[in-house]
Specification:
One of its GO terms (biological process) is proteolysis. It is an enzyme of class 3 (hydrolase). There is one protein chain. This protein folds into 2 domains: 232 residues, 3-Layer(aba) Sandwich (Aminopeptidase); 85 residues, Peptidase M42, domain 2 (Elongation Factor Tu (Ef-tu), domain 3). The protein contains 9 helices and 17 strands. Helix 1 packs antiparallel against helix 4, helix 4 crosses helix 9 and helix 7 packs across helix 9. The longest helix is centred in the middle third of the chain and has 19 residues. With 338 residues, the chain is an alpha+beta fold. Strand 10 and strand 11 form a beta hairpin.
């Protein structure tokens, strides 16, 4: 694995609507491997291979993460916030946080006290963030309204090839599609490949729609995380048996084109990559839904990364699954025949 690239992505702050830092990292990483890089008004980034080819395969993964945003600063200097995306409020009180400002990072703590945890409907309206400011005027010397906030977490390697970090959803997907472009180029890929690091998936999903309408792809491969069934609180009856380390996950969903699932399985079998299947009764609840309904309709296949503890401050993934996703997508691109 390209640990430097991945760690740079995971260390960045990319709360939905504030994805610029991730896109800068991707641009720097991919400029030597692609023929063209495009960036639009909403900060969607598309890395392109073989733009002259009439076949255009879109790879999509979202750059944004869930988090908080400063909505108000009180007279005592405490920060009030709203959420950006589907946070789990109970994971924030008592936690150190990082605030991305125009002058660099500022650190703080989400206030916590025992009675706070008795709130039946705990939410961001109960949060106060202490940055050490004396008052509102002092706070405004360090932060601004609208600054994004994330938990102050770490990247840690675990046993048996597992690793943990904040917001693997879906910076891990961005890593995968970019590494797949590099690998597909090595394999002699001839079709047009448009690797889109999209914005706003956790909030509006506008990024996927904007990008797809401008690419007008022949088909799309969407990479996002999915729940595993090998941890507490998950019921395999609802979405199937998905194991961490079990390989890339294909989706039995009415929005996924079955022939593309079959082509993915064929590519996986050819190079010995194990694949898993998950079940979905309706939409995929990924960028794939917006892409599928864009233009005159875009055929879509979903390649998911098994993930434990989604939307928690410490998510867990497996290096084997990541490498399997990269190779599977690269093989699909290199062997695609329209």
């Amino acid at each position: 694995m390209n640990e430097k690239f991945l760690n740079n992505l995971l260390n960045s702050i990319s709360v939905s609507g504030y994805e610029e830092q991730v896109q800068d990292i991707v641009t720097e990483e991919m400029k030597e491997y692609t023929d063209e890089i495009r960036r639009d008004e909403m900060q969607n980034l598309t890395c392109i291979l073989n733009p002259e080819n009439d076949v255009r395969i879109m790879l999509s993964a979202h750059a944004d993460e869930i988090g908080l945003m400063i909505s108000n600063i009180r007279e005592d200097g405490r920060l009030q916030v709203i959420d950006r995306g589907g946070i789990v409020p109970a994971t924030y009180p008592g936690r150190q946080v990082r605030i991305k400002t125009k002058n660099g990072e500022v650190y703080g703590v989400v206030e916590a006290y025992r009675d706070l945890f008795k709130e039946e409907n705990l939410g961001t309206k109960h949060f106060l963030i202490d940055i050490g400011a004396k008052d509102r005027e002092d706070a405004l010397k360090n932060v601004s309204l609208g600054d994004p906030i994330v938990p102050d977490t770490h990247i840690r390697k675990m046993t048996n090839g597992k690793f943990t970090a904040r917001a693997l959803d879906d910076r891990l997907g961005v890593y995968i599609i970019m590494e797949a472009i590099k690998r597909a180029k090595e394999l002699g890929c001839k079709v047009g490949v448009y690797g889109a690091s999209t914005t706003g998936e956790e909030t509006t999903k506008t990024g996927a729609f904007w990008t797809s309408t401008r690419i007008n792809p022949t088909l799309a491969i969407v990479v996002d995380v999915t729940y595993t069934s090998d941890c507490s609180g998950m019921n395999p009856a609802e979405m199937g048996t998905v194991l961490l380390g079990g390989g890339p996950v294909l989706c039995n969903s009415p929005i996924v084109v079955k022939t593309l699932n079959a082509k993915m399985e064929e590519c996986a079998k050819k190079v010995g990559i194990p694949v898993q299947r998950e079940a979905a009764s309706r939409l995929s609840y990924t960028d794939g839904d917006k892409i599928h309904f864009s233009n005159q309709g875009v055929p879509m296949v979903l390649v998911s990364i098994p993930l434990r503890y989604m939307h928690m401050p410490a998510e867990v993934a497996d290096e084997k699954d990541v490498e399997g996703c990269v190779e599977l997508i690269a093989q699909f691109l290199a062997n695609y025949n329209a």
